Amino acid sequence: MGENVTAPPQLPWPVPPPDGYTVDDLFTLPDLPPHTELIDGSLVFVSPQRAFHSITVCLLEAGLRRAAPERFRVRRQMVVVLNTRNAPEPDLLVLRAEAVRSLRQTRYEPSDVVLAVEVVSPDSESRDRETKPGKYAAAGIPHFWLVEMAGEKDHPAVHTNELDPVTKAYALTGIHHERLKLTVPFTIDIDLTEVDHL
Questions:
Q1: Do 142 and 114 touch, CB atoms closer than 8 A?
Q2: Does the reported pTM lie above 0.70?
Q3: pLDDT in tens, 139-164
Q4: Which residues contact 146 (CB under 8 A, 6 or more apart)?
């Protein structure tokens, strides 16, 4: 006689509204997975990350915290509300200190952000390389870094970009492989090969 096998319960997926989700939905829908983003009115869920992603974010976060002058703050994976239909969550943010008002704060405005950093993941390549940079630039965020896995040792390569005020698009200012050494938005010197020791 065969066993009575019951099917696993089906999770109820939210049905999107006809015009897509809004920022209000992002912050009020129950039981959304952690780090859900809102891109063009669609909810985007984060897949499990590779070790490269986690280690690289840790390395850059520590370097930015060491280097940031008192007038700035560094935050990891916090929502930036670009408009009613776009609320991405960059891997790292450098904010103006006055934007940090409370430990209960859940979001920031583009005008608060000096630098947004995205570390490319296999499931988010086009969003990280194309969609998000375009939206960050349109919102006026002055600096953007795109971080890719590169070379035989899978070290981070940091593509630094600065907003061109005329075109309102990012202009590539450098690609950094072994060492990230910059003077904007402030003096930064990070040994990218340290990923081998984290």
A1: yes
A2: yes
A3: 999 999 999 999 999 999 999 999 99
A4: 118, 120, 128, 129, 133, 158, 159, 161
